[in-house]
Amino acid sequence: MAAIELDGVTKQFGDVTAVSDLDLTVPEGEVFGFLGPNGAGKSTTINMLLDFVRPTAGEVRVLGLDAKRESVAVRRRTGVLPEGYDVYHRLTGRKHVEFAMRSKEVDGDVDAILERVGIADAADRKAGGYSKGMRQRLTLGMALVGDPDLLVLDEPSSGLDPGGAREMREIVRAEADRGATVFFSSHVLGQVESVCDRVGIMREGELVAEDSIEGLRDAVEGGETLVITVDAASEENLDAVRALDGVTDATTDGGTVTVTCDPDAKTAVIGALEDAGVSVKDFQTEETSLEDLFIAYTEGEVSA
Ligand SMILES: Nc1ncnc2c1ncn2[C@@H]1O[C@H](COP(=O)(O)OP(=O)(O)OP(=O)(O)O)[C@@H](O)[C@H]1O
Q: Which residue numbers delimit the ABC transporter domain (predicted)?
């Protein structure tokens, strides 16, 4: 069964189309990264999963339930870390987690949760005095209450230091290993790359890519960068390289030649350089980063 299923979903705010005819399926147990530039429609989509916002058209199903008619059941089985959640200043961290347990009508070990998110020492301090990162950790702890079947995390690493971001990734992976589905929106692409099974990229309300990061790389022309160490190379030497099929770009500083190309063009690139009289000493390949893929998909170089 799919954990999340959107079918032809559109959301209009007056004249603004926040989400346009969106089809998206996330299978159970997957860690799905939901990406896109500011204003692309991510939060609106997340809010429709939780029935905080109602679609103008289309169907939203979460955990096999109708997001609109069965929203109470959806929320009971879902842990949410909303973007910019404001803690209750006068309540302690412990009280927050107890509150989350009462709302979901579940029992649990409050200390174990606070320990897991790294704020056990501050359990009995008022959350108003917590730092930004501590508040974020507390909100994540509240989301974990009751071992939810679905975790929806909107910018979860916001405010976290590098150690906190790593712990958050470990928690996400552990939750997926337990069988939970994690739907994860973030602008921190390194974070997404290291934790997500698949990603979806939104642009102006539409999903412009949906694949594993490997799959996105394959779909983007010039999915690899070849860095070749040579004795000496000139601009003219590169003409033969640039003329090859699958080569997007080639530059040189004299001692290094850098070529963006499809993975299967590598051998031809080395051959063309040698034919041009350039002596190749060494070469290595660098995969296109998720950041470059993101730019390619959201700034118009690639379309799905
Ligand atoms: N309640 C609202 N009323 C009017 N317009 C809205 C409302 N919520 C969102 N929008 C508009 O819908 C579009 C999508 O916004 P949304 O918040 O979903 O984007 P996002 O991808 O989450 O962006 P960000 O990365 O900045 O959080 C934007 O143009 C936004 O201004």
A: 4-229
Quote the number of domains for the chain: 2
- Residues within a 6 A CB radius of ligand 1: 13, 16, 18, 36, 38-44
pTM for the predicted model, two decimal places: 0.82
Q: Are 10 and 57 in contact (CB under 8 A)?
A: yes
DSSP code of 129? Answer: G
| Alpha carbon nearest to ligand 1 atom 6, residue | 13
The residue nearest atom 24 of ligand 1, judged by CA position, is 38
**Contact between 31 and 43 (Cβ < 8 Å):** no
DSSP string, 133-148: HHHHHHHHHHHHTT--
Q: What is the pLDDT of residues 113-164, one digit of tens each?
A: 999 999 999 999 999 999 999 999 999 999 999 999 999 999 888 888 888 8
Give the helix/strand (H/E) hosting 5: strand 2-13
Q: Is residue 18 part of a domain?
A: yes
- Give domain status of residue 118, yes or no: yes
